[in-house]
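Reviewers asked in the last cycle whether our approach scales beyond single polypeptides. To address this, we selected a multi-component target totalling 732 residues and predicted its structure end to end. The input consisted of the following lines:
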Amino acid sequence: MEFWNNAVLVGALLMVAAILASLLAQRTGVPLLLVFLGIGMLAGQDGPGGIAFNNFDAAYVVGTIALAIILLDGGMRTRTESFRIGLRPALSLATFGVILTAAIVGLAAAWLLNLNWLQGLLIGAIIGSTDAAAVFSLLHAAGMRLKQRVGTTLEIESGCNDPMAVFLTVVFTAALGSGGSDLDAGVLLQFVQQFGLGAVAGWIGGKLLAGLINRVNLTTGLYPLLAAAGGLSIYGMTTVAGGSGFLAIYLVGLVLGNSRLHAGSHILRVHDGLAWLSQITLFLMLGLLVTPSAIVPMWREGLLVALVLMLLARPAAVVASLLPFHFPPREQLFISWVGLRGAVPIVLATFPVLGGVEDAQLYFNVAFFVVLTSLLLQGWTVAPLAQALRLKLPKEHAPYFVESLEVPGQSELKLVGYRVASTSPALGRLISQLPLPAGVRVAAAFRHGRQMDSVGALDIRPGDLLYVIARDEDVPLVDRLLVPEDDAEETAQMQYFGSFTLRGDALVGDVADVYGIEVPEEARSLTLSDYLNRTFYKRCVIGDRVRLGGMELVVREIDDGKVLKVGIRVI
Amino acid sequence: MSLLSRLLPVSNIILDLDVTSKKRVFEQAGLIFENTLGIGRSQVFDALFARERLGSTGLGHGIAIPHGRIKGLKEAAGAFVRLKSPIPFEAPDGGPVNLVFVLMVPEKATDVHLQILSELAQLFSERDMRTALTDAPDAATAQRLITEWEPHAPTQRRAAV
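The resulting structure, written as structure tokens, was:
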């Protein structure tokens, strides 16, 4: 009793410390996961906390559940519309890319650490996948809006590549555990089974779960839990049946996130919290699990493996995997650098320990070192690198409150809240005079904390709170009317996109004539949209830029692959 | 010193012009350039409309910078028109336009002309400048505001066309 009470106390205090430490991370730019890991290590064996936690079984169970929840949440936040751009490159990275990474790292590790090739490959497999938790948390960090091609490719990759790494790790662990040093022929079959079952179970399970959520009538608070428990059930069933549970639960999330769900926004919000809880638990626990004094002596080997991974294996895998997709060089560079390693390798490194493989502690220590280096070097530099490579899109105006409305039989409706600032373009007008798109209603207005009675006749003043009901696609139009102007934001937008805009359906030849620019004859009859799509191999995204004489054309607005607006920027 | 300092003679400024459409503004611009530079008003009008067809030259905040190339023009020339009441301009922010700077450049376009456009955009992106021009009591004041303006940082000169 006494022990467990203490354990609860210590666990809760660590959690509080981790949550408060996130403030520190915000201010200093330290990767958040590193902070969690650090707190775990401080509380652990060699730190002032002195907690000796060596239970690999428990770590494995907690680790996999946490990963599954993180993947579920990640899937929910991946929009299928982004598949047009990111799916195929991401799948290439998640399969072929992982194999290539594992192979290069594996062979290098075998040579560096004096291991046989199978042992080396096990190390390669363990650190072969990028980490969903790390990548999601970095990419969704406040204010970070990446160019879509880069952002979605990285996201989908990190959601889909764990099965491959898990699979390779299981195979190599089994081979080494059985005392052998060779692979048997069943591997390929197993591979097909893992992926096939995972994909099918995830897709069908997701559809069924979505149907269930929409059919049952529960207290609102139970829907998110139904989604989580349902997702984990599908994870469990798939794993028991010999498929990849990680792939399955990511797909469940994907299906749920892209279906119209009962209490959908509530589910999303709670799952955001669950994903945080999972990340904190996972990294705290991994920090506790590791024994720093055992790792430090290995720093030379660990660092070398990490450097091979970051500077050789990952870039080579990225370039090779993306070859058919013609990504611009700077984007390949960025994707290479954002091959973040996180919790997955550490969880995978518990496999050999549990599988009774000889020298299992070695794999764990190397994996831990690689993750630490990756979080430290790569995690810290992602944001500045994105800025330097101009892959970070400038901030957009945003309302301060957005909530999905649940109206049966209605397409996506949003309730959007605005606080009128002294620079708002709508100032002084009557609400009934605002040029709102058809179907958009100002539902309520508050002044000095009191709700106003006749909304339509209200003259808009600074400090007013306006709540507007609008269809999803109309929200940006309402934003333009009501969001206060922000000079710094506008300057940033102007520097990124240029001040002037052209229509996507303008002809290249006409643009060239107006600005006196020489262009190849065959390009003259193309629209800007076609020209840009040709330049970017039909995967044109906002922020793509191409040089034309003394200026640069920058894609500014896009709809379903068609470029609507193009900015002109002087070079 | 900015590239704008020699662009705008006071005779090329009209304050509080009472028109209701983009077309009328462009006709007025044609008249200005015909009077001061001796180029055909229809040439100006056509050049401005050719650019406008590719997308509005409205920038938002009530600003528009229509521009075009003119055969036979020796140096870049500008005209500034303040409208009595704002007119629709299909600007990106959906708002009407009340301050219009018309820029005409010689046919042999060079990067300098793109730089001029860039500086104009920067000038009008300053809130204080917009207010001052809206409140300017006479053409001389407006001219002084525009020609004496300094771009703040060299990096920002690269801002935009």
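Residues 12 and 42 of chain B are 17 Å apart (CA to CA). We regard this as preliminary and will revisit it once experimental data from Aim 1 are available.
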